[in-house]
Amino acid sequence: MQRTDTDSLKIEGIEESITKRVLALRPKRIAVDPFVPYAFVNELERSASGIVEPVSTLFLTNRECPFRCVMCDLWRHTLETTVPLEAIPAQIDYGLSRLPPARHIKLYNSGNFFDAKAIPPGSYAAIAARLADYQTVVVENHPALLGDQVLRFRDMLPGRLEVAMGLETVHPDVLPRLNKQMTLDQFQKGAEWLLDRQMSVRAFVLLQPPFMEGGAAVEWAVRSVEFAVRCGARVVSIVPTRGGNGMMEALAASGDYTPPRILTIEETLATCLQRVVIKMSTAPRVFMDTWDLARFASCSKCAADRVKRIEAMNWQQVMLPEVVCPECRDVRNGGEELDD
Ligand code: SF4
Ligand SMILES: [Zn+2]
User: Is residue 241 part of a domain?
Assistant: First the structure.
C-alpha cells in the first residue's frame, strides 16, 4: 500500500480483453477545462450527528482513472494528461465561490484522489489551505492507491479526512468481472489501514451491476452494504447501475445488464435501513444515490413521489410508507410486467 502513481499498476487476474473491449466501445469524451470543475453542487446529507446539512460537492476535472471498470462512465469528463499544479486549487476556488457555505465537502475526481497523475501531490498544500474551514473532507480512492501520500494530505487538514472506496459488490462471480482489479480482502485491508490512521471510510455499492440477475439485486446490494459496514464504513452510498459508456449498452444487448427499476431501488434502501442501519451498533448511514433517479421510473404518475420517498429515507434513515400509485399498481398486481 505504498503506491504513489499508477506506472506500475498491474492488471492482476483480469482478462486484458475486457479492458480492450471497454475502450473500444467508448463514445466520445466531453470537452472539459482543467481550471474549472466539470460540476459543483450543494446537496443535503445526513451527517454523523444526525443533522441534515448541506455538503458541497466539487467534481474535479483531472486525468482519467487508470482502471477500466466495465460500468464506469466517469472518464467522460476527464483529461488524458495531468493537470498543472495550479489547476485543482483554481477549480476549488471556482466552485466554492459559486456555492453557498457548507461544513462538509466532497472532492470527487472521477477516479483516485491519491493517484499522483490525477491530483499532483505538489498541489496538496494549496488544496488543503482552501479546506481549512471544513469539518469533513471526503475524497474518493481505490484501495490499491493508499500510502504515505494519504497521510501527508491528512496531516494538512484541520478537519477529518474521509476516504470513499468503491466496494461495488461482494458477489464472488460479479466483482472480478467488473474489471475493478480489487478483491474483498484488499477492500477490507484498505479500510483497516485508513481507520487505524484516524480517517473515516465511506463505501460505494452498486445496485444491480452487470452479470447479476435482477431478482438477486436487492439481496446482493444489502449483503454488500453489510460487508462495507463490517469493514468499518460509517457511510455507504448505493449507486443504481447506469448505462451510457458504450460497454453497458453492449452488455444490455447481450442480456448481461438490465437497469434496476425504481421499485428495486426503493426496496434496496428500505431493506438496508431495516437490516443494517437500525441493527448495527456503529450507527452507519446508508444512502441511495439520487442523481437522475427518475430515469429508472417508467410510470410518470408516481416517479416524483418515489424519488421524494428515497430522498426522505436518505435524510431520516428510517423506512417510510410505500408510494401507492393508482396508475401502475394494477400492473404490478397483475404480475404481468412489473411496472414502476
Ligand atoms: S476505479 Fe472508479 S473511477 Fe476508476 S474506472 Fe473504476 S469505477 Fe471508474
Ligand atoms: Zn405509478
Answer: yes
Q: Is the CB of 166 under 6 A from ligand 1?
A: yes
Does residue 69 have its Cβ closer than 6 Å to ligand 1? yes
Is 3 a residue whose pLDDT tops 70?
Answer: no
Residues 257-295 pLDDT 10s: 999 999 999 999 999 999 988 888 788 999 999 999 999
CATH (domain of 161) = 3.20.20.70
- Measuring from atom 3 of ligand 1, which residue has the nearest CA? 111
DSSP state of 120: -
Share of the chain residues as helix, strand and coil, in percent rounded to the nearest 5: 35, 15, 45
Domain that holds residue 160: 16-334
**Does residue 1 form part of some domain?**
no
pLDDT, average across residues 230-242: 98
**Mean pLDDT score of the chain, rounded to an integer?**
92
Which ligand is the nearest neighbour of the Cα of 178? 1
Q: Which ligand is nearest to the CA of 67?
A: 1
Which residue minimizes the CA distance to atom 2 of ligand 1?
111
Is beta strand 200-207 parallel, antiparallel or unpaired with respect to 52-59? unpaired
5 alpha carbon – ligand 2 mean position (Å): 49
**Could you tell me whether strands 52-59 and 160-168 are parallel, antiparallel, or unpaired per DSSP bridges?**
unpaired
Total structural domains within the chain: 1
**pLDDT tens-digit readout, 12-40:** 445 578 999 999 999 999 999 999 999 99
Cα(307)–Cα(309) distance, integer angstroms: 5
Per-residue pLDDT at 4? 40
Confidence of residue 252 (pLDDT cuts 50, 70, 90): very high
What's the CA gap between 291 and 298, in Å, rounded?
16
Q: Which residues contact 32 (CB under 8 A, 6 or more apart)?
A: 38, 61, 77, 78, 79
Q: What does the alpha-carbon distance between residue 203 and residue 168 come to, in Å, rounded to a whole number? A: 8
In a domain, 313, yes or no: yes
- The model scores a pTM over 0.90: yes
Determine, yes or no, domain membership for 38.
Answer: yes
How far does residue 269's CA lie from ligand 2's centre (Å)?
Answer: 19
